[in-house]
Amino acid sequence: MNESRRNLPWLLLVLVGLVGAGGAVLGVALSPKTATLTGAVRNTNLAPNYTVVVTERTPQGNQTDNLVWEAPNRLGGYIQSGSRRTYVYVLPSGTGSAEYQSLTVSATAQPRHLVFYRQASQSAALLNPATNYLRYAHEATHVSQTGSTYSFTLTQTSTEGKETGQFAYTVSGQYISAFTLTVGTSSVHMTISDVGSSPPVRLPAGSKVVASSASGG
After folding, report:
1. How confident is the model at residue 13 (pLDDT cuts 50, 70, 90)?
2. Domain of residue 180, residue span
3. Is the Cα dihedral 19, 178, 127, 60 positive or negative?
4. pLDDT at 173 > cutoff 50
5. How many domains does the chain have?
């Protein structure tokens, strides 16, 4: 959704590589009502819906994504930078998935009667930032636990050389409720809330859809 992220592999929300799940079982139960890290990741991934808010802070600027995930393949909400918002939805279509993106508007503007431009897209399941960030929990081998927060580091090689990310996941009950990733002077903070009670994902009422030139009609 944001081409400027291509140079920030760790912070990439929608183009994170699809890595294998090869980590060991992580953490111990805090109580009978609290899941382990891997259990909470699994439960969150299997949840029917939730609200995810992701704030990125980089030397290039800050950005917040406020999205709702609805299984099996719907994602939508807005991306805000400063006082401006762009509304983005990825929904099933007859030929796979389609992305609907609005023109950027004021953060105080009502989303009614927005014009959305439609084009073919990857599936919402692949673009979901929560899914992409939760998968790293399976790569950890040395995890420390403080209360309900699990922390570890991972190192990867990018075009800029080796980068080390500091990861932290917070478990609340049976689900992941917060995630933080810090890489040098850049960071991501994600919260997951309203599990099982988030609103349906659909275009705002009164929206107009226009096919973009890239969609082939």
Report:
1. very low
2. 24-215
3. negative
4. yes
5. 1
